[in-house]
């Protein structure tokens, strides 16, 4: 993803998304995935702000 403006950050976010989805599977409310993704990104050292304006 070197051709993207923030390629490393994009790659980290996509990898975290797949980790959450593969761990939880399908069928949950979007809020469950959102919270899980925020936790995963935080554990990976990224600053997360949920539902920022």
Average pLDDT works out at: 90
Shape, principal axes of CA atoms: globular
Q: Which sequence of SSEs, written as H and E, runs from N to C?
A: HH
Distance between the termini: 27 Å
Query: Which radius of gyration do the C-alpha atoms yield?
Result: 12 Å
Multimeric status of the protein: single chain
Please state the structural category: mainly alpha
**Helical amount:** 55-70%
Describe this protein's structure.
This protein has 53 residues and is mainly α. The protein has two helices and no strands. It has a domain at 7-43. The protein has helices at residues 7-24, 30-43. The longest helix has 18 residues, at 7-24. It starts with 6 loop residues before the first helix and ends in a 10-residue tail after the last helix. 4% of the residues are buried. The mean pLDDT is 90.
Topology:
Layout: H1 7-24, H2 30-43
Helix pairs in contact: 1-2
What is the structure about, briefly put?
The chain is mainly α and 53 residues long. The protein has helices at 7-24, 30-43.
What keyword list fits this structure?
mainly alpha, globular, 53 residues, 2 helices
């Amino acid at each position: 993803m070197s051709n993207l403006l923030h390629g490393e950050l994009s790659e980290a976010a996509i990898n975290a998304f797949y980790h959450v989805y593969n761990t939880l599977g399908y069928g949950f409310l979007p809020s469950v995935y959102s919270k899980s993704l925020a936790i995963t990104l935080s554990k990976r050292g990224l600053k997360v702000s949920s539902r920022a304006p």
